[in-house]
Amino acid sequence: MIDAHIHIEKSPYTIDWINEYVRYAQERGLSEINLLEHTHRFTEWMPLYEASRKKDPLAAKWVDDHITIPIQDYYDFIQKAREYNFPIKVNFGLEVCYFPDKNEFIKDMLNEFDFDFVVGSVHYAFDVPYDIKGLSEKILWDKYPVDDIYEDYFDRCMKCVESGLFCQLGHPDTIKMFDSYKPSIDTAPLYEKLADSLHRNNVMAENNVGCYYRYGHPDMGLSDDVFNIFRDKGVKIITASDAHKPEHVGMYIKEITNK
């Protein structure tokens, strides 16, 4: 079993800290884990968020508060960790916040480092974050029609998959996390179109349980409808916890692996 989306942002970069992730992974029967960081941690990636920073001052403040360290610190640690003999396979990568007009910037930045994997994730609609409780409601969900938010989100997901920059699409249905904002449109055709693109471009889709245990959404990972669409379209699906601390590594991976 694999947990393909685990954040290591809560501590300084040390082998002892990574071993905490490994310990929980072993306890939950995992044979492989993918550790990563958000691009919104790193100073060099600030240009990625320029449209969002201009769009809304609250979105700008959120980015400014989170971008705190140079990416070289992370990559130097990766090189050190690769020399360590962990008891399970440990991969190191990056989760990129995808913006459609930043393909060349993303490509140039990724070419500077040798990551084991790179996840492309859509966290923004209309250039403001859709998934930050206490913030996104004010700056997005209460300002734009819900159907338009969903359509913009799917357009960005399609462009993310078709960019050729990523091996994995992060949490493809996390747009559902604010369950009180429901679209009136049928989203099945949008997921079918996305599934066709994922299959055509050989990009994996995450079955990510983060919304379930972190935000209380009733779906454990992908909804049954979305999971079936992806499966029937031949999309490669990879299991992910979206853990942000060691004790969440492997959460519900066994359950969704047996789905």
Automatic annotation (TrEMBL):
User: In its keyword annotation, does this UniProt entry include Amino-acid biosynthesis?
Assistant: yes
Gene3D superfamilies, per the entry? Metal-dependent hydrolases
* UniProt-listed Pfam families: PHP
One Gene Ontology biological process: L-histidine biosynthetic process
Output the InterPro entries linked to this UniProt entry: Histidinol_P_phosphatase_HisJ (IPR010140), PHP_dom (IPR004013), Pol/histidinol_Pase-like (IPR016195)
- Which Enzyme Commission numbers does its entry carry? 3.1.3.15
Gene Ontology MF terms:
histidinol-phosphatase activity
Which intervals of the chain form a coiled coil? none
GO CC list: cytoplasm
Q: Which UniProt keywords apply?
A: Amino-acid biosynthesis, Histidine biosynthesis, Hydrolase
Q: What class of enzyme is it?
A: hydrolase
The UniProt similarity line reads: Belongs to the PHP hydrolase family. HisK subfamily.
Protein known as: Histidinol-phosphatase
Biological source species = Peptacetobacter hominis
